[in-house]
Amino acid sequence: DNIIVHFNNAVTCNVELVDMLGKVVYASSIKNKKEYNMALDANKNSISVGMYYIRLTGDINQQIKVVKTK
Question: What pTM was computed for the model?
């Protein structure tokens, strides 16, 4: 299963996947020049079933709730 974050415009930001206890379970930096899809392989990165937040900081400051169900 993949978690996909789509960026419409050029952006520089940090992307973190954070569990409900506040632990960062995945982190990456993005610097792109055009439309971009960032895919996180939840199985490869041992992401357990549960609720998480995708936290974006930098050019974009946003927090998005996601749920991994399988």
Answer: 0.79
